[in-house]
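2024-03-11 09:14:02 DEBUG pipeline.ingest accepted 1 chain
2024-03-11 09:14:02 DEBUG pipeline.ingest length=92
2024-03-11 09:14:03 DEBUG pipeline.predict start
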Amino acid sequence: MATTKYEKQYQEMIERYKEVFEDLKKYSKKPKSEEFREVQFKAMRIVRRNEDALCSKTENNRRFSSFSTSLSDKFWEKIRSEYPEIDLSTED
């Protein structure tokens, strides 16, 4: 079965930044800790850069602009399925 564009982007991101995402899993047990916040910030920046790279070509084409939103949603679903703690609010 062929790999979708968002799955390929996800795999490349996880492989390239393996250490950051391993740390995210490790520190997610203590979401209010300073270590978790630091790693979460790094991971969110990485994810957003990859999301931008994934969607940039489709957003510039009017015929596929609505496809970009769907692609972004699927990309985030994939991330959250593996790292549900990625966008936990740390404020309280």
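2024-03-11 09:14:41 DEBUG pipeline.report The chain is about 70% helix and 0% strand.
2024-03-11 09:14:41 DEBUG pipeline.predict end
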